[in-house]
Design a protein that fits this description.
Helix content: 40-55%
Protein name: Aminotransferase
CATH architecture of the largest domain: 3-Layer(aba) Sandwich
Shape: globular
GO molecular function: pyridoxal phosphate binding; transaminase activity
Pfam families: Aminotran_1_2
Cofactor: pyridoxal 5'-phosphate
CATH class of the largest domain: Alpha Beta
Number of helices: 14
Keywords: Aminotransferase, Pyridoxal phosphate, Transferase
CATH topology of the largest domain: Aspartate Aminotransferase, domain 2
Structural class: alpha/beta
Order of helices and strands: HHEHHEHEHEHEHEHEEHHHEHEEEH
Length: 395
């Protein structure tokens, strides 16, 4: 009998397993590894949120909700977005609850794209974007930002849109994973001035919006609401990655179409998780503040330590990642570098090339880790650099 995989969807078979998950599994195989790869808060979900979930279980609030999500959750989320970012969404018609932003991206691109379309993705970028576009038989077009401090420049954006008329979606993530860079209002308005000239959807992944350090986050949906589908949630802001709650917002006629894909993929998101997220949006306005202060302290310690070891990276003003350039004179093959570091020092750091164009020769470090782990990581990295300079250079 033939291999049954030969009869499966070739577009699915062609998708590669995510390198970040494989590398993380390699790191977790050794309990002595200091792991700086994980992009999730090390804080516990706040107690008042956990209690809301417990009460939902005790009260047997465990049945299906409507696909778009419990309306109490959507109302709370709409108010949260209004208070935090001055956004005005009708919770009845312009918002749906998704299975994290990951499903939000998947369902949104499924609703927007068709064969032959192109998706413009600033790179380096989170690793699901390109495969999601390809799954819809669209072509990802990567915009290398490594020459401009990992930010999209308006002239660069205009040129790509002008020369690629099949681009239908601009998939924008800020604060950015993996670089940690973000944009101020003036920078966003200049990008919006370009985008409003083209028939392009903006899918704005703003899941790290509560983790900005020198200025308040300004949402792209505030500037270009008719073209923008906003994706956000509680995973990073409220240390709720495992609860899997995202929110997709946009014009009514667009959200209606996205909801068709969403309900086919999920029926509805976990009711218990929705109860927890309702509490987060309703009474958790200050929960991110304590975490954000700790992240900033960790960032500064890690940034200072890396600079002393000649690893350069732009100061990240959001999220909880540093994207560091491997020093000159050391192996610029970031995958080989990261694997050697793991083998010799039990320190796990993700290769930058996993995140696409512009990432080669870089390493992504997550400071969503304890201060003890950050200090330990710096000691291990210093030891590796010191020993590297002493041994014969054949790499």
């Amino acid at each position: 009998m033939k291999n049954l995989v030969e009869f499966m969807n070739p577009d699915v078979v062609a998708i590669k397993q995510q390198e970040i998950f494989k590398f993380n599994a390699l790191a977790k195989a050794n309990n002595n590894v200091v792991n700086m790869t994980v992009g999730e808060p090390d804080f516990a979900t706040p107690d008042h949120i956990k209690l809301a979930a417990i009460h939902a279980i005790i009260n047997d609030d465990t049945k299906y909700t409507v696909p778009e999500g419990d309306h109490a959750l959507l109302r709370a989320a709409a108010n949260y977005l209004k208070v935090k970012y001055d956004l005005n969404y009708d919770p009845e018609t312009e918002m749906i609850t998704t299975l994290g932003v990951t499903e939000g991206v998947f369902s949104t691109l499924n609703a927007l794209l068709t064969t032959g379309d192109q998706v413009l993705i600033p790179a380096p970028c989170y690793t699901i974007y390109g495969p999601d576009a390809g799954f819809d038989q669209a072509e990802p077009i990567y915009l290398d930002t490594s020459k401009s401090e990992f930010k999209v420049e308006p002239t660069q954006l205009d040129e790509v849109l002008k020369t690629h008329p099949r681009i239908k979606v601009f998939l924008f993530n800020y604060p950015n994973n993996p670089t940690g860079v973000t944009y101020n209002r003036n920078e966003l308005e200049k990008l919006a001035d370009v985008l409003k000239k083209y028939n392009v959807f903006v899918v704005s992944d703003e899941i790290y919006s509560e983790l900005t350090y020198s200025a308040k986050h300004y949402s792209f949906a505030k500037i270009l609401p008719k073209q923008t589908i906003l994706l956000n949630g509680v995973s990073k802001s409220h240390a709720m990655t495992g609860w899997r709650i995202g929110i997709a917002c946009g014009p009514k006629e667009i959200i209606e179409q996205i909801n068709k894909i969403h309900e086919l993929a999920t029926t509805a998101v976990s009711t218990v998780s929705q109860a927890a997220a309702t509490e987060a949006f309703k009474n958790g306005f200050d929960d991110p503040i304590r975490m954000r202060k700790q992240y900033q302290k960790r960032r500064d310690v890690l940034l200072s330590g890396l600079e002393k070891l000649d690893f350069y990276c732009p100061i990240p003003d959001g999220a909880f990642y540093l994207f560091a350039k491997i020093p000159e004179g050391m192996n610029q093959d970031d995958v080989a570098f990261a694997k050697d570091l793991l083998a010799k020092e039990n320190l796990a750091i993700l290769p930058g090339s996993f995140f696409g164009e512009g990432g080669a020769g870089h390493l992504r470090l997550s400071y969503a880790a304890s201060m003890d782990n950050i200090q330990s990581a710096l000691l291990k990295l210093a030891d590796y650099v010191s020993n590297y300079s002493k041994r014969p250079q054949s790499l």
